[in-house]
Amino acid sequence: MSFLSSLDISGSALTAQKFRMRIIAQNLANAHTTRAENGEPYRRKLTVMAQRVDGFKKELGVALAGVEITQVIEDGDDFKVEYDPGHPDADEAGYVRLPNVNTLEEMVDMMSASRSYEANVTAFNAMKQLASTALNIGK
Question: Has residue 133 been placed in a domain?
C-alpha cells in the first residue's frame, strides 16, 4: 500500500462520516415534521456504507480500500402516534402521526460519527507527519 493510498483511505472515510452527520442533522431537524412533501410525517433516513472498490485497480489486482456511502434509505419503523385533537394534522379520532425519529438515538449516532471523523483526522495527520519526517531524513 502506498503512502497516497493511506491518505485516500482516510479522506474517503472523512467524506463518508461528514455525509452521515449531515443525514443525522436532517433527521434531528425534522423530528417534529408531521407533514413532509409526500403528505406523510417525515421518515428517518439512514446511510449505508460499503467498502469502496475501484474497478480499474481491482482488475489489475491492486487492492484499494476506502469507504463510500452506497445509499440513503428510509427507516421502515412505524410512526409514533400522539393524541392531540387541536393539531392541524390530527385524524378524526384526534391522533397525530409523528416522525419515527428518536432524538436520543440520533444524538448517539451523531457522537459515533463525530468520533469516527476525529479518528480519521488523527490517522490522516499521522500519515502527513510520517511523510514529513521521511522527507527530512535525507537532509
Answer: no
Number of domains in the chain: 1
Please tell me the pTM assigned to this model. Answer: 0.84
Q: Which domain holds residue 117?
A: 3-126
- Among residues 14, 1, 21, the alpha carbon closest in space to that of 124 is found at 14
pLDDT by residue for the chain (139 residues), tens digit each?
566 778 888 889 999 999 999 999 999 999 999 999 888 999 999 999 998 876 666 666 566 678 899 999 999 999 999 999 999 999 999 999 999 999 999 999 999 999 999 999 999 999 888 888 888 887 7
Q: Look at residue 85 and tell me if it is in a domain.
A: yes
Task: Specify whether the CB–CB gap between 120 and 10 falls below 8 A.
Answer: yes
In contact, 98 and 34? CB cutoff 8 Å: yes
Q: Confirm whether 132 is domain-assigned.
A: no
